[in-house]
Design goal:
Number of helices: 5
CATH superfamily of the largest domain: Lrp/AsnC effector binding domain/regulation of amino acid metabolism (RAM) domain
CATH class of the largest domain: Alpha Beta
Shape: elongated
Structural class: alpha+beta
Number of domains: 2
CATH topology of the largest domain: Alpha-Beta Plaits
Largest sheet: 4 strands, antiparallel
């Protein structure tokens, strides 16, 4: 795992809030020279601490009228079935996020669809018709808000 210090944590925090910050703005925000900041960002990318950047989008602008979490219970937990189901989920454009979880259900799948008819068709064709799936339960999402902060459990007090 990459060595991360308090300056790296601050860089990560600022980029989580706004990934479009220029290097100059980012450097000023963490109190580093731009060249030092750029080198740190490059190192964080190379060591896969920073794994990508994204844009937040208004779902309505894309015709997404409904979002839901689909809880999925698999019929069996054999590796081949699990991997097959995950590969299937990755092909679905409606799937926003896949969570493989412990507990009564095996997966929580965040989906975005145009309307309730689209959700019904997705549930039938993409989930209940799959041989790996024993049970699904769908919960509508009324509101989704992303938290831009991540907890930091690393001890960075030595720097």
């Amino acid at each position: 795992m990459a060595e991360i210090d308090s300056k790296d944590v601050e860089i990560i925090r600022l980029l989580r809030k706004n990934a479009r910050l220029s290097n100059k703005e980012l450097a000023a925000g963490v109190g580093l020279a731009p060249s030092s900041c750029l080198e740190r960002v490059r190192r964080l990318r190379m060591t896969r601490v920073l794994t990508g950047y994204h844009a937040d989008v208004d779902p309505d602008a894309l015709g997404i009228g409904l979002q839901a979490m689909v809880a999925v219970r698999l019929a069996r937990h054999a590796r081949a079935g699990v991997e097959s189901f995950e590969r299937h989920l990755e092909t679905l454009t409606e799937v926003v996020t896949i969570f493989h979880v412990a507990g009564a259900n095996d997966y929580l799948v965040h989906v975005a669809v145009s309307d309730s008819a689209h959700l019904r068709e997705l549930a039938l064709s993409a989930f209940t018709e799959r041989p790996e799936v024993a049970h699904i339960e769908t919960q509508l999402i009324f509101r989704h808000q992303r938290n831009y902060e991540l907890p930091v459990y690393l001890d960075t007090s030595d720097d």
